[in-house]
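Review form for a predicted model. The reviewer records the input and the model, then writes brief findings.
Reviewer: anonymous (R2)
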Amino acid sequence: MPSARRPKIVPSLLSADFAAIASQIAMVEGAGADELHLDSMDGRFVPNLTWGMKIVKDLRRLTTLPFDCHLMIVEPERYVDAFRDAGADIITFHYEATPHQDRLLAHLRSIGARAGIAINPGTPVSMLVDLVEGVDRVLVMSVNPGFGGQSFIERALVKVAEVRELLDARNPDCEIEIDGGVEPGNIERAVQAGADVLVAGNALFAAVDPPAMLRALRARADAASAAAR
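Model under review:
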């Protein structure tokens, strides 16, 4: 079942033009983005490298939008304090990246961050059963993590619905985020499955008119949410 909350549209800066990042952020903020999604990759957990805490800190000066920092790194517990100090509001680590998920979730909350946990396409929802009460956001990956511009994995919608059922029973305040290949052709189904937070990267920043695309994504998400109530 869809969430009762209004869906959030969250641009992924992985797909933005970093040569003009200040104007790119201002553009999506002006178009009504709810948050900004920042993917940090270490070249070990995923086969790609992006940015670390310094970039997050520098970008923090450009906007008041919440920063949704998605850590695709091994041993995330070594770095979360620095990401929080740099300006991260929501910090999401991967279930697969650390053996101490419960401890790290509690630590994130203790340092004032909202605590998120992500699962890869190959990780079943059942792995979250013993963790959900300590989570503020569950991120369901709808692509294999590491690169922007990938095709949406349809099976992710089934997993979103499974997470929604689990959270409705045990932690209804927790949000569900979906990341990877979100675009106009699937955003309504993502909301119908139960997603609250919709990350849009290539579909948004590669559009001819990104602000118009953001507004179109929001309209579709809002319509799907309203129709399901």
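Findings: The radius of gyration is 16 Å.
Further findings: The longest strand covers residues 36-41.
Recommendation: see findings above.
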